[in-house]
User: Fold these one by one.
Assistant:
Number 1:
Amino acid sequence: MGLSTHVLDTMHGCPAAGMRVRLFSTQAEQATLLKDLVLNHDGRTDAPLFDNAGLRVGTYRLTFDVAGYFKGRGVTLPEPNFLNQVSLDFGVAHAEQHYHVPLLVSPWSYSTYRGS
């Protein structure tokens, strides 16, 4: 399956439908944008970010527009926001394996893990 992600909105107890997500490849301090997309009704991408044939060993960054998502839901956020963009830097050591990178998020906290 390659690389996938999904986001759960822990404030409202639902998928983060409509959240903007960007995928970058990274090398040292350089980040190259690979994909820019919006999550579907289930808080997921419509297709894997990469299938196993396209995924390469290396380092990547997923950036999630947390403040934009919650503002779009009508949540009043302080200025400046506590969380604006959440960036997750991670490595892919075995391109033949599935890497699932979920995000659990509220306007004030987030957590992630390598999912299955």
Number 2:
Amino acid sequence: MKVMRVTCAPSNPIMDWHSVNWKECYRTVKAMQSRIVKAYQAGRLGKVRALQGILTRSFAAKAIAVKRVTELNQGKKTPGIDNELWDTPTAKADALLNKLSQIGYRSLPLKRIFIPKNNGKRRQTA
């Protein structure tokens, strides 16, 4: 008998960062990644795209992403371009549940910086 695992965000959100079952999150992401590899090796590119979408929207993948950025990263104490720092468990849980939703997401335009050159012109960086 095959048991189905739910990989999407739970309907009742977890409010406590420390109550996340990390072992299950890592196991879920690893299993989904192996399914993606097997589908790619079988040449089923449509299945690969579908599984990638499921993985990117899954609660486990989002939780691991937030954990990597806020705990395991060397720059974990550096705020991003939005000057937000997720340093408390409440901020991490809020980011996981509210800020990383796929619905209604629109990326912000790149920040343009003009660097003066020696000849008086300006060089644009993104």
Number 3:
Amino acid sequence: MKRLVLVSLAGLASAAAPLVMAGAAAAKPASEDACFLTRDLRGHTIGTDGHTLYFDVNGTAVYQVTTSNPCLAGVTGSDILVLKDRGLGKICIPLDLEIRARGNQCLISKLTRLSPAEAAALPKRLQP
């Protein structure tokens, strides 16, 4: 059984302030369609490279999270993932989300909504 824990944390934005300055221009979503509500998370799968996580959002979209560190190495689908948002309940850019797995903090470098074709092309074991 896949377990996912979500925690709102308003102070996350202040802790990530130096990162905001470095990537503010690249961090803006193309549109509101690039955002999802944390309450709509339905499941996840862990990629095989230790850097990739896939989220099922309300059964209608799949998002790929890419980390710059291998924080997901050795993590299985049954391990608890702790997600923290900025307290808004909406994830639009990598800085809106913090993930911890097995005590390791993931440094999120990319958050991508996959097209339906890209999501369908994922191997069955990686589809959330």
Number 4:
Amino acid sequence: MELYEKLKYHRDAGPYPLHMPGHKRNIRAYEMENPYGLDITEIDGMDDLHAPEGILKEGMDLAARTFGAEESWYLVNGSTAGILAGITACTKPGDTVLVARNCHRSVYHALMLRQLKPVYIIPASVGGWDFCGQILPETVEEMLETSCKAVEEMLPAENRSRKPALVVLTSPTYEGILSDIPRIAQICHKYGVPLMVDEAHGAHLGFGRFPAGAVQGGADVVVQSLHKTLPAFTQTGLIHSQGTLVHKERIKAALDIYQSSSPSYILMAGIDRCVRLLAENKIDFSGWERMLSDFYARTACLHGLQVLDMPSGIKDPSKLVVSTARTGRTGAALMDLLRKEYGFELEMAAPRHVIAMTGAGDTAEKIEAFAEALIDIDRRWRSAAVFGEETVHGALPISPGEEALYDALPLLPQPKVVLSPGEAAIQTGRQVSAEAAEGLICLESVMAYPPGIPLIAPGERVTAEVLAAAESYRKGGISLRGMTDGMITVL
């Protein structure tokens, strides 16, 4: 089957998308004509993304006003291009940067390309859950104030007083956890260090009654994927800038490098239309918020499954995170069951939880049906042997190996940085089995994708903790990139 036919199948008969993009293929709410009639290039009157003076500049100016930034630019190569451009604009080769350890792989790629020295900020934990939480303001302040012992170890003696060039963090996280951006921005600015926030999953923040976003919080550079939660095409986003710590001309120059020289006008039209829907208050945020509120209320009765419900200032409610830990089953098992028997395709599965993404294009009917599906599965799994009861009609047996996932899984490992990612990238390595890799220096990222957060990054020493985390993912039915057939490239 060709890709076009596969896309038509998913549109017409596939499972309901509880994943990005945020328009949810809702052609009743959002429609465009046949794209072939709209596809064009930089002819007279159509402006140029890399030197905008007309209609594209007008659209980007509207985006800045709508989101509250000083200047905004279209992204047609996804948030990845924005992250690469933002980090490039804020740093020089050899600089030290403070980086949240749970950042997306595109941040690590920027570290490689710019030959930067990362010092990792370790996120707080989320009690009872197996993923990273907030970046605490006091942690950022302590690291900036002390200049980081790790920085001193990595830099030559004559440069040890040099402050970090940039602080980079992700908020919201893939699970929707929000850091206190206003406080962190204030701390960074006290030390004269710009703050860049990967807000790829939070373009909707600050609209309706959703929590405020990073632009309102005072971050200097903010990167957003419009398509993740809003009605825009996949691969589209915005990068915003404000304040005096980042030179906007350097952002423009970096975007000229990292974005296509032949940008799609269809993608840019999608960005423009999405921004105008926001500016004209034509997106039904109140309806979206209402269906989310109903979902959380309806699923409060779950016994084995558990929905993460936290105050909106700490978590973005649009991310529906469901734990399987109390059932003894894996996230992959829940995701597979929802697809095959209930007609829902989720965003991702982790060893002990799943993520369902809601967006502006969702309908109350489908979100209510998802809640009912979870309630039904919870009833079926409660009847299974994991709770010490006899299996009854409709109950689902535990698959071999799933019992081991009942115990707590390790959070994101914290291996020691031996080489910077850029130094590691130029090394010639060898492949060894995972068991033989302990104590050696990893030369590639090992990660589940999604979410694309490395369990171990290039230049870090492989530890028993890393290998245990990788094994937990394997048992949970989650494949890892960078560990092909159980082999890892090491130095």
